[in-house]
């Protein structure tokens, strides 16, 4: 199915219809959680011919899945831990996503590995990268990215003049891939909806329906309308990441899976602050630090510390920011300061607990469990392997359904916008001419919407004022804000400025300078009046202020207390125990 044949929209009318539909007939499977794992499960189940509903308490990808390092990678450090199977699986997924499933959203990215020890390090890192590159070949696919190469210090400095000469003795460059994590989740959900899945955000599961021991569905609070509904399903999948244990408690079950959270903080700085043509990977005491090219910016991270505080809004403290700056500055000739930091974001890794007290050593592999009849739990893993996780979860669903369900076919299902992408990319100059937009704009649009670009261009044709860039965030056209509401499930200002775009971390004003304009553009399709526009801007402003202040605090506890001072625009309900 291509965009031209009608990719499903996730607009306001579709949300209402999905909730109504979910409330009216028993589904084969209902998925709790609209992060990458839940989205993957919905797509896997829908493409096996099952009837599926997905419920997300907040915005799609508002949990961990918009707060990652945005890499589709095998993970060099798992290689060092001799976890070859995990690396091979992830690299095969990388090849599949790059070449077949989402070539419009997943892109190769180079990294320079500076060597600091003379003698043993080059052969050691080199051997690791020979293995990394060869594990990346998969059946029927090439690796999808160039192979690694060794560089002298002089050649490395030509690629990355920002590096301090004395900080390294030579380097190896290798390739991985990157993705806009939040947009990818939304695109998986649009694809799932195209294959018939019913999808709703701001719909929080607050309880379970039971018949004896068996789970027969969920109780849901529609956080926009305030209403409650029951969704009956033959199987329920819990894909709630760091909230897994809460759902487990809701069902009253002794947990088979325990997930705990480890916080990772990233900084965003303008591209001109680090003069380099390549990303950089640095070893740290615990793990690695990435300097990742990201449009006109760099993303630098991450930290890895235990987190037991608020999971919806993990806060970055001054200590987190200092940690990242200190480590990157160790290799830069012109150090970064806090004044260079445009954006900061924190995410929580859903780690399967119990193996070790050191969060960075906890397993990234996933598990699937069937704690009570009718309920499947899936947790752990990483973004890169979401498709494998989803497949395993739906295999468990199929087992519980007691009927013949076809095997997973998502390895052959391109995401919405993928089909025809390469041909459109090759025609970008012609598209620029016919649309009147600069070719750089067309490239930007193609890398966000793929072959669904027509739908954005139609908006512009109807209202040429939408061809103007946002004042204060000129990477984005005004049309993108409208499209985020009509097609991409955005319901509040925060959704648009944080996840459909990343203006909140890509500008020094953190989105405040465009908040009013964006809210006014959203008002039409969402039917907002002047009061609601004001309310949206106020809530967004409070959020940014609270985040800024929390980033001045020395400890997690202080940062968390301040971040929690900014309320949610729609209060998320406290779940009722069964
Ligand atoms: C700092 C950091 C960097 C990372 N970098 C990478 C990387 O570069 N590459 C990689 O492969 N992986 C990376 N990861 C790991 C990856 O991001 C996660 O494994 C993945 O995003 C987890 O997805 P998820 O769907 O399990 O969880 P989430 O995205 O958190 O989704 C769970 C969803 O469930 C919803 N929910 C919770 N309770 C309810 C309820 N009662 N009703 C309805 N919905 C509910 C939540 O709102 C949330 O949206 C990184 C993680 C972190 C923290």
TrEMBL record:
The keyword Flavoprotein applies. One of its GO terms (biological process) is glycerol-3-phosphate catabolic process. GO terms for cellular component: glycerol-3-phosphate dehydrogenase (FAD) complex. Its cofactor is FAD. Its EC number is 1.1.5.3. It catalyses: a quinone + sn-glycerol 3-phosphate = dihydroxyacetone phosphate + a quinol. Residues 28-387 form the FAD dependent oxidoreductase domain. Keywords: Cytoplasm, FAD, Flavoprotein, Glycerol metabolism, Oxidoreductase. Pfam families: DAO, DAO_C. GO terms for molecular function: glycerol-3-phosphate dehydrogenase (quinone) activity. It comes from the Bacteria. Residues 408-532 form the Alpha-glycerophosphate oxidase C-terminal domain. It is found in: Cytoplasm. PROSITE patterns: FAD_G3PDH_1 (PS00977), FAD_G3PDH_2 (PS00978). Belongs to the FAD-dependent glycerol-3-phosphate dehydrogenase family. This is Glycerol-3-phosphate dehydrogenase.
